[in-house]
């Protein structure tokens, strides 16, 4: 009987200290992606389906933070299927989110189904840029759209692309709205560096 109490206490402590459901879902998403057909076109769109549950809601609609969480899982699936994860690992590189921006157009309500459509739009010498859209299955409306800057650490998108394609790959042009956002990131970074005195130290 005592061991049951110890197990329950350990589980309670685990759930209090960690986002257990997140860490359980990540490997599940990756395993599911392994058993799906690979995506050979690096810029091809991948679609995952979902439905707003009681865990997601805030005032009967999907909580703002849940959109970003679902985008995490969709990127894990995308990178597994298009080979980016495998290529980064082979090159000793890793990837982190450098910036995101999301626009909410209409709430996804409890019980409503949606498609999460993810694609790599383009890249530069330091990061991939992705677009992720939440599309309602009820009427096809784009309820939210997010841009993500996926920075490559100890490597570069060009090296990953060359590893995948075995040749030099030209990156697609930046769409106008994405370029505006990238310019904002650059301006914000410069302002923060100046504010902290880093620019003076680097001179």
From TrEMBL:
The name this protein carries in UniProt is Protein THEM6
The UniProt entry's sequence similarity note says:
Belongs to the THEM6 family.
Q: Name one Pfam family in it.
A: 4HBT_2
**Upper classification of the organism:** Eukaryota, Metazoa, Chordata, Craniata, Vertebrata
Q: What species is given as this protein's source?
A: Sphaeramia orbicularis
């Amino acid at each position: 009987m005592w061991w049951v109490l110890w197990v329950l206490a350990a589980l309670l402590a685990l759930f209090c200290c960690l986002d257990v459901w997140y860490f359980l879902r990540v490997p599940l998403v990756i395993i599911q992606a392994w058993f799906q057909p690979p995506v050979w076109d690096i810029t091809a769109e991948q679609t995952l389906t979902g439905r707003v549950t009681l865990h997601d809601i805030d005032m009967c609609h999907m909580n703002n933070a849940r959109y970003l969480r679902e985008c995490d899982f969709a990127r894990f699936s995308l990178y597994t299927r298009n080979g980016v994860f495998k290529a980064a690992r082979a090159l000793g590189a890793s990837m982190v989110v450098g910036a995101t921006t999301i626009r909410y157009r209409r709430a996804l309500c409890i019980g409503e189904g949606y498609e999460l459509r993810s694609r790599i739009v383009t890249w530069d010498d330091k990061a991939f840029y992705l677009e992720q859209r939440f599309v309602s299955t009820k009427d096809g409306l784009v309820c939210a759209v997010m841009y993500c800057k996926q920075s490559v650490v100890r490597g570069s998108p060009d090296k990953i692309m060359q590893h995948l394609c075995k040749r030099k790959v030209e990156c697609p042009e930046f769409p106008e709205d994405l370029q505006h956002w990238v310019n904002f990131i650059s301006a914000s970074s410069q302002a923060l560096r100046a504010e902290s005195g880093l620019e003076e130290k680097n001179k």
